[in-house]
Specification:
By secondary structure, this protein is of the alpha/beta class. It has a single domain, classed as Oxidized Rhodanese, domain 1 (3-Layer(aba) Sandwich), CATH 3.40.250.10. It is globular. The chain starts with a helix and ends with a strand. Helix content is about 50%, strand content about 15%. Strand 5, helix 7 and strand 6 form a beta-alpha-beta unit.
């Protein structure tokens, strides 16, 4: 019953998600999964990512956030494959498994998970962007907002 009440509150309060995201604490289980995946994933900084994108036109930047996050702003040159559909669609979008791929999410956790699963699917040059979209905004990258 408590879950239904909180879902109702989320649906009735348009600012709930904004406040929730600002103070979001990740569950211990989620963080444990991320930490386990982190051991097999290469993480890079915004500076390293910017340099790789500038020096290699074949490097692909993937935004793995949800649709609403993407629409609220994303890196102009990024393609959108949310975490929920990445496994299903990545091979049709990026058939060459040796291309350099940089993934970002909101804060750097989901991109670790998507980088790890992509590696298990045979992608050999995948990176997770440390700090995600928050770090991108702080570094003043060119952003685009869907109107």
């Amino acid at each position: 019953m408590g879950n239904r009440a909180s879902l109702s509150k989320q649906n009735d309060d348009p600012n709930y998600l904004i406040r929730h995201d600002r103070f979001m604490e990740h569950s211990k289980g989620f963080l444990a999964v991320v930490e386990a995946a982190r051991n097999s994933v290469n993480e890079i900084t915004t500076e390293q990512a910017h340099e790789r994108l500038a020096n290699n036109s074949n490097t692909i930047l993937i935004d793995v956030r949800e649709d609403s996050e993407w629409e609220n702003g994303h890196v102009k040159q990024a393609i959108h494959l949310s975490k929920g559909i990445l496994e299903r669609d990545i091979e049709s979008v990026i058939p060459e498994k040796n291309l350099e791929i940089i993934m970002y999410c909101g804060g750097g956790y989901r991109s670790i998970l998507t980088a790890e699963i992509s590696q298990r699917m045979g992608y050999t040059n995948v990176h997770s962007l440390i700090g995600g979209y928050k770090a991108i905004k702080a570094a003043n990258w060119k952003l685009e907002v869907k109107l």
